[in-house]
Design goal:
By secondary structure, this protein is α+β, with helices and mostly antiparallel strands. It has a single domain (2-85), classed as Alpha-Beta Plaits (2-Layer Sandwich). It is built from four helices and four strands, in the order E-H-E-E-H-H-E-H. Strands 2-3-1-4 form a four-stranded antiparallel beta sheet. It is elongated. The mean pLDDT is 96.
Length: 86
């Protein structure tokens, strides 16, 4: 499975409803939130089979605004190879 970063921007008016839906879906413990600092965004890293599957962690009410990014890690060797190839 791949790991995905999910960014879930939402408005102040959407905030409580979104939190309720995240709780109902069982994903609350996956998310960190900026809401109390005035940045109505949630961030989570989850494992999923695909980007589309990862997007299902986001309630439909804000899914169109969400970003889902597949994550990877680099080794020092990977970076060295990129220097040689570039």
């Amino acid at each position: 499975m791949d790991r995905y970063l999910i960014e879930t921007p939402h408005t102040d008016d959407e905030c409580l409803g979104l939190l309720d839906q995240i709780i109902a879906a069982g994903y609350l413990h996956h998310f960190d939130w900026g809401c109390q600092d005035g940045d109505h965004t949630g961030w989570a890293v989850i494992e999923a089979e695909s980007q589309a599957q990862a997007a299902l962690a986001v309630p439909a009410m804000v899914r169109a605004k969400a970003r889902v990014v597949r994550l990877n890690k680099f080794t020092e060797e990977d970076v060295q190879k990129l220097h040689v190839a570039g």
